[in-house]
TrEMBL record:
Organismal lineage: Bacteria, Pseudomonadati, Pseudomonadota, Gammaproteobacteria, Alteromonadales
Protein name in the entry: PRC-barrel domain-containing protein
InterPro entries hit by this protein: Bac_photo_RC_H_C (IPR014747), PRC-brl_dom (IPR027275), PRC_barrel-like_sf (IPR011033)
Domain of life: Bacteria
Annotated Pfam families: PRC
């Protein structure tokens, strides 16, 4: 199911030994357009510190109760590697984070979660149900980490809050500004950007899939998309108060003559 970022903010995180805190922001990978980490503000039990939570640790999402149940404990969080949420997340920090929690590295494969289709399949507990070969070459794992660190310049995790209000240009003019995102909570992929067209078409929201983006100029906060203003105007509009259905998605992709799911 798809949810907006607003749906996923202020979720209470239930750990195995108590509550951790509330979701405040999301870091996404600007190459694969997938949420890599949820930024969680802990309560008074940890001096309201901000920590990173990987979707790998998520066991259950309850939209009605606004909760996420995770497989990690408060004690693990308390001793986890420090992160300054106001600064970019480096690959070295990701290596430390993943190794601390015993997660596989997601990089080095073509899929958005390594060789797995979803993050929960990377969790240590998953392998008790579907065991993996235990003849893993540690030297190969070490080489994989070294290679990832050497590619750090190409690695970019971006805050969803920081990119909100980026302006979008269609082929023939302005399209609007980025108001939000639609997230698939099975894979935590960003399926659509929610675009507010109020600067030229008042009161309408349209959806743009990341695969329809031609270029992103991060220094100028601008996104260029492969569509015309008229195509956007004729497309099914998005209403955040109505659950996003499969029929809506099929109509949207039929309109643009694409199938990017």
């Amino acid at each position: 199911m798809l949810y907006t970022l607003n749906d996923l903010k202020s979720l209470a995180i239930h750990a195995s030994d108590g509550d951790i805190g509330l979701t405040k922001d999301f870091y996404f990978d600007d190459k694969h357009w997938v949420i890599r980490y949820l930024v969680v503000e802990t309560g008074s039990w940890l001096s309201s510190k901000k920590i990173l939570l990987s979707p790998i640790s998520i066991k259950e999402f309850n939209q009605q109760q606004k909760t996420l149940t995770v497989t990690i404990s408060r004690e693990q969080v308390k001793n986890s590697p420090d992160i300054d949420s106001e600064k970019p997340v480096s690959r070295q920090h990701e290596v430390d984070h993943m190794e601390y929690y015993g997660y596989q590295h997601y990089w080095g494969n073509t899929g958005i979660w390594g060789s797995e289709p979803s993050p929960n399949m990377m969790s240590p507990g998953y392998y008790s149900v579907a065991p993996k070969p235990d003849n893993i070459d540690n030297s190969e794992m070490s080489a994989d980490v070294d290679a990832a660190l050497s590619r750090d310049d190409d690695h970019h995790l971006r805050s969803s809050e920081a990119v909100t209000d980026y302006h979008l240009d269609a082929i023939d003019g302005e399209l609007g500004h980025l108001q939000g995102m639609l997230i698939d909570t099975d894979t935590w992929a960003i399926r659509y950007l929610i675009i507010n067209t109020s600067n030229w078409w008042l009161g309408h929201l349209v959806l743009v899939a990341p695969k329809w983006i031609k270029e992103v100029s991060w220094p100028t906060s601008k996104i260029y998309v492969d569509m015309t203003q008229q195509q956007a105007k004729d497309a099914p509009t998005f209403d955040p108060s109505v659950p996003f259905s499969l029929e809506h998605e099929q109509n949207l992709q039929t309109h643009y003559g694409r199938n990017d799911k």
